[in-house]
């Protein structure tokens, strides 16, 4: 399935991001906990140029906790300050503490000179990952526009969280990684790419196959699939029959089936699900995982 996801405005936004990054103290990078590799921008390292950053694995409430725990160890081993985030007050407090800690030396340097410095942080990540939601939680009110679709935030917006912390909301950014089709497809599942850009039916079939492979029973139960071995359109027909998505005259309503499968997956109705797992941990860690 081909997904053309890099229109001109993304290229412009990407250039702007690189410029703006030079003007802030740190970047708060948001990735999706269900897809922690594909939802990270591989160009960010170069753009950040050793500038500090913290990484939030967002929508952790939709991901498998054991996978998230592994990802956190994986990122820690890379020397990256990372945490799982799910918009709760406790996690928001933890994220704020992580930002403060990353900026501690700047704050302390300021204090030694008798002034409390205002830390400026830029929040970056793919569309729809939860950047504006995170900023609203930090701020404690609805200051940034949020929505259940990609491309809601159109321009950079500074938000003063308190006298010592300002955060910049940014439009979600994808990058030109067209060669990685699996990553593109999975980014489309989680609602990062506008629905109009790809073929909904092909995407839905791909998603159902992925779901059946990792959560077979739950997927069959949710969509009332009797034959999980069915392929292509026959798989969609399973859903249409099971859930009663029929048009007048008894034709299968493929569009309805696709919309429902995607919506219910995105809303976590099939259960918590991580689509990308980190490489296997060394034996010692695996043993610890089993004991936990
Ligand atoms: N389940 C769950 N949903 C979340 C979480 N954070 C955000 N959302 C939802 O994700 C959707 C997108 O949130 P936004 O904050 O608008 O995302 P964004 O990254 O600012 O998106 P763009 O501005 O389009 O780039 C909204 O429907 C939020 O309610 C989370 O931690 N868990
Ligand atoms: Mg936004």
> What ions, cofactors and ligands are bound?
guanosine-5'-triphosphate, magnesium ion
| Poorly predicted parts | none
The N- and C-terminal alpha carbons lie at a distance of: 40 Å
Q: For the largest beta sheet, what order do the strands appear in spatially? A: 3-2-1-4-6-5
**Biggest pleated-sheet summary:** 6 strands, mixed
Structure description:
Strands 3-2-1-4-6-5 form a six-stranded mixed sheet. The mean pLDDT is 90. It has 292 residues and is an alpha/beta fold. It has two domains: 8-169, Rossmann fold, CATH 3.40.50; 199-266, Conserved Hypothetical Protein Ylqf, Chain: A, domain 2 (Orthogonal Bundle), CATH 1.10.1580. It has helices at 8-21, 44-48, 65-77, 89-102, 104-112, 131-139, 181-189, 200-214, 216-223, 232-243, 254-266, 283-291, and strands at 26-32, 52-58, 82-84, 119-125, 157-162, 165-169. It is built from twelve helices and six strands. It is elongated and about 75 Å long. α8 crosses α10 (232-243). The longest helix has 15 residues, at 200-214. It binds guanosine-5'-triphosphate and magnesium ion (MG). Residues 131-132, 152-153, 169 line the site of magnesium ion (MG).
């Amino acid at each position: 399935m081909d997904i053309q996801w890099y229109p001109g405005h993304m290229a412009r936004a990407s250039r702007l991001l690189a410029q703006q990054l030079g003007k802030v103290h740190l970047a708060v990078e948001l990735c999706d906990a269900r897809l922690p590799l594909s939802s990270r921008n591989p160009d960010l390292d170069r753009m950040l140029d050793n500038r500090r950053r913290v990484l939030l694995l967002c929508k952790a409430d939709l991901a498998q906790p054991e996978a998230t725990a592994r990802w956190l160890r994986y990122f820690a081993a890379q020397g990256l300050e990372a945490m799982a985030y799910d918009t709760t007050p406790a996690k928001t407090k933890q994220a704020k503490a992580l930002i403060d800690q990353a900026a501690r030396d700047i704050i302390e340097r300021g204090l030694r000179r008798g002034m409390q410095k205002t830390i400026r942080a830029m929040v970056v990540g793919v569309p729809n990952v939860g950047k504006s939601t995170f900023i609203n939680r930090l701020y404690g009110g609805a200051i940034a526009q949020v929505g259940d679709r990609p491309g809601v935030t159109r321009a950079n917006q500074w938000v003063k969280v308190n006298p010592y912390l300002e955060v910049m909301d940014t439009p979600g950014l994808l990058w030109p990684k067209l060669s990685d089709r699996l990553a593109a497809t999975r980014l489309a599942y989680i609602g990062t790419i506008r629905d109009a850009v790809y073929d909904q039916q092909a995407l839905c079939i791909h998603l159902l196959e992925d779901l059946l492979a990792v959560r077979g029973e739950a997927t069959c139960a949710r969509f009332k699939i009797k034959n999980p071995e069915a392929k292509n359109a026959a798989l969609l027909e399973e859903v249409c029959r099971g859930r009663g998505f029929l048009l007048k005259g008894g034709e299968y309503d493929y569009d309805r089936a696709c919309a429902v499968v995607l919506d219910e997956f995105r809303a976590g109705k099939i259960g918590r699900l991580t689509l990308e797992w980190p490489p296997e941990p060394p034996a010692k860690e695996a043993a610890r995982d089993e004991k936990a």
